[in-house]
Amino acid sequence: MYRELAKLQAAAKELLGSWKFVLEHDCTQGSISPRLFSGAEAAENRAESTQAKWGAHKRDGGYYWATYKVGVFCF
After folding, report:
1. Which residues are within 8 A (CB) of 62 and not within 5 positions of it... i.e. 6 or more apart?
2. Average pLDDT by consecutive 10-residue portion of the chain (75 residues)?
3. Angle 8-9-12 (CA atoms, 0-180°, nearest 5)?
4. I need a labelling partner for 46 at 20 to 30 A (CA). Which of 5, 17, 27, 36 fits?
5. Is the separation of the CB atoms in 67 and 75 below 8 Å?
6. CA 71 vs CA 8, 14, 16, 49: distances in Å
7. How far is residue 51 from each of residues 37, 58, 64, 67, 68, measured CA to CA in Å?
8. Residue 25 in contact with residue 39, Cβ under 8 Å?
9. What is the distance between the alpha carbons of residues 47 and 22, in angstroms, rounded to a whole number?
10. DSSP 8-state assignment for residue 12
11. What pTM was estimated for this model as a whole?
């Protein structure tokens, strides 16, 4: 039983090591980094209009009270 566990641990360690390399590459040089920056920019552009809706009356495009409450008090 201990031999099988040792084999499993060795295989898992090798697999996790290769995943770590792939993730580090993708995060620093691959496709994730450019999308991260463009996503942050898009969020920044939408933040001001979203914030304005929190204080606006519903007839002026504001959020319902329940939506505001969930966004502020549950997160």
Report:
1. 53, 54, 55, 56
2. 89 88 76 79 87 81 78 69
3. 85
4. 27
5. no
6. 44, 42, 36, 15
7. 21, 14, 13, 13, 10
8. no
9. 33
10. H
11. 0.39
